[in-house]
Amino acid sequence: PTPQNPPKIVPTPEYRATYGDKPVWHGYRRHHKGSVPPQHARKACLRRGRHVGNPCPICRDRNLLVDFRNVKLLDQFICPHSGVIFHPIHTGICMKQHKRLSQAIAQAQAHGLLWLRIPFVPVPEEDFSNQHAAVGKTPPAPALRGSGQAWYPWYEWQQPPAAEVARMRRLYKGFLKENYPDSPPS
Length: 186
Hints:
Blueprint: H1 13-19, E1 46-47, E2 50-51, H2 71-75, H3 88-91, H4 95-111, H5 162-171
Antiparallel strand pairs: 1-2
InterPro entries: MRPS18B, Ribosomal_bS18, Ribosomal_bS18_sf
Subcellular location: Mitochondrion
Protein name: Small ribosomal subunit protein mS40
């Protein structure tokens, strides 16, 4: 298939014989050394024109073309519950094919061929007012209190000690205006 010719739709007889009803990536296992599988996807399955190890599920099958019109193939790489594209570690595809898949899925969603799956979250029917025990000790808002009263008791203006006022007047005598009030401005 070429970009000019539309790709074959995934459930062809050849596809069903090879994969059955399972996704392309089902049962894929990447070759690796040691007992612990790699924690990151490989960059590409081709190095210097040759396949590396066990190629990813898309690179190993030449009949699979990643295209935005091939919705059945793209749908295999999207989580049916959340609508999120599966991580390449989960599906076993290389990063090059994952990037192509992500672009094709976005293009298919933009063309309306794939649904933008947004999970439905019901609105809880709980009481969201602040009339419960967790906020019972919070003082009422300033608008709810009488005018002229502070929200918190420590916000209320208190007269500083007379000795401290006299000391500050001596220190800043040259900078103070005459007849400076002893009470706060309102």
